[in-house]
């Protein structure tokens, strides 16, 4: 009984992270974020109205984006889900967190029970991986003044995705032939743990292993965000919350909206959007262009102004006629764009 009480107290302590960070953000961090947002608007020259009207607009934006009642459901959800996962991990005479897969193999010998227990290990370890990832994610967003309700929804959906993917991964491994199967089963808890941290990567692996027999369909280049320099896993998760899942979405996004709805520095957003604008036209040639010091659409425009397209063509290996067509597309896209208008103002940030 005493042991169960200690487990419950430990689980409550771990799960209190979500509630504590949400309260801390609402009470102490939002005022600082408002001041920072006002400074950015002035520097970019976005605010052209009177100060009173601007204050009302800012207050309305922050009221809609950071409404305290909106935090209740997502925080409650991720707290309960984490608590259930931790109970599976830490409860019982032989806690899964300590024994892992070996606990499941030393039971009554029933094959079905052993198989089900292995799946249970996967679920518990996937929740643990998701929780550890969420700690980094929440603290990072707290520091960046960006702890909106959607952050907790992202964690909750990630936990659900990770738990189901970990079970499917177990089923997939069981279908393999020995000795490869035995080697993977020995490290199954570790694989499940990393599933909690990188669910999308494990899902992609499962798709590659399971759907190889299906006919490959023709489809457009997905233009992944991974190809944008400076964007890491945390950035991709945050951008996904504002419906930006690939470089095409990023290139066609509204920078003013991103400044309001994300914590990223305007200079960083400007660089990402400029890279994406070039990437959607260059596609598979983007790395060749970077080898010739052309990272963004503005770099290509400047190279043309200096009469260096022939040099870029030789260094990158891209045919000069193809490069001219690419330049024409980039130039037409840039005309009257918001990026061009604020480019000079960004120097003062």
Structure, briefly:
This protein is mostly helical and 349 residues long. The chain has helices at residues 2-44, 51-65, 72-90, 96-99, 101-105, 111-143, 149-174, 180-186, 188-197, 199-210, 233-240, 247-251, 255-261, 266-282, 286-291, 297-305, 309-316, 320-334, 338-342.
What can you see in these coordinates?
- The chain has two domains: 2-210, no CATH class; 225-348, no CATH class.
- Helices cover 73% and strands 0% of the residues.
- The chain has 19 helices and no strands.
- The termini are far apart.
- The mean pLDDT is 81.
Distance between the termini: 59 Å
Strand share of the residues? Answer: under 5%
In N-to-C order, the SSE pattern is HHHHHHHHHHHHHHHHHHH
Helix content: over 70%
Sheet with most strands: none
Runs with pLDDT <50, length 5+? Answer: none
Q: Globular, elongated, flat, extended or rod-shaped: what is the shape?
A: flat
Structural class: mainly alpha
H/I helix tally: 19
Number of strands: 0
Number of structural domains: 2
Spatial extent as radius of gyration: 25 Å
Mean pLDDT over all positions: 81
List keywords for this structure.
flat, single chain, mainly alpha, 349 residues
What's the helix and strand layout?
Layout: H1 2-44, H2 51-65, H3 72-90, H4 96-99, H5 101-105, H6 111-143, H7 149-174, H8 180-186, H9 188-197, H10 199-210, H11 233-240, H12 247-251, H13 255-261, H14 266-282, H15 286-291, H16 297-305, H17 309-316, H18 320-334, H19 338-342
Helix pairs in contact: 1-3, 1-6, 3-6, 3-7, 6-7, 6-9, 7-9, 7-10, 9-10, 14-18, 16-18
């Amino acid at each position: 009984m005493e042991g169960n009480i200690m487990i419950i107290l430990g689980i409550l302590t771990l799960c209190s992270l979500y509630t504590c960070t949400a309260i801390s953000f609402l009470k102490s961090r939002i005022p600082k974020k408002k001041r920072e947002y006002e400074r950015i608007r002035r520097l970019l020259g976005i605010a052209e109205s009177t100060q009173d009207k601007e204050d009302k607009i800012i207050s309305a934006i922050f009221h809609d984006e950071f409404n305290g009642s909106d935090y209740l459901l997502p925080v409650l959800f991720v707290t309960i889900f984490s608590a259930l996962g931790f109970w599976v991990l830490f409860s019982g005479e032989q806690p899964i967190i300590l024994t892992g897969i070996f606990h499941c193999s030393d039971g009554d010998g029933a094959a079905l029970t052993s198989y089900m227990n292995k799946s249970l290990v996967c679920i518990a370890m996937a929740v643990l991986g998701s929780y550890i990832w969420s700690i980094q994610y929440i603290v990072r967003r707290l520091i960046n003044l960006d702890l909106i309700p959607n952050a907790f929804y992202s964690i909750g959906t990630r936990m659900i995705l990770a738990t189901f993917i970990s079970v499917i991964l177990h089923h997939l491994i069981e279908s393999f032939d020995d000795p490869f199967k035995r080697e993977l089963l020995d490290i199954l808890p570790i694989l499940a743990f990393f599933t909690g941290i990188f669910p999308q990567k494990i899902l992609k692996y499962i798709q590659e292993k399971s759907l190889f027999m299906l006919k490959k369909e023709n489809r457009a280049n997905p233009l992944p965000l991974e190809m944008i320099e400076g964007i890491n896993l945390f950035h991709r998760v945050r951008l996904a919350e504002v419906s930006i899942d690939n470089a095409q979405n990023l290139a066609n996004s509204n920078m003013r909206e991103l400044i309001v709805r994300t914590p990223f520095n305007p200079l960083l957003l400007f660089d990402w959007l400029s890279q994406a604008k070039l990437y959607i036209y260059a596609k598979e040639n983007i790395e060749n262009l970077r080898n010739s010091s052309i990272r963004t659409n503005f770099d290509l425009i400047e190279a043309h102004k200096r009469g260096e397209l022939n040099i870029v063509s030789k260094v990158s290996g891209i045919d000069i006629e193809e490069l001219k067509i690419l330049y024409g597309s980039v130039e037409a896209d840039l005309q009257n764009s918001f990026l061009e208008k604020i480019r000079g103002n960004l120097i003062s940030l």
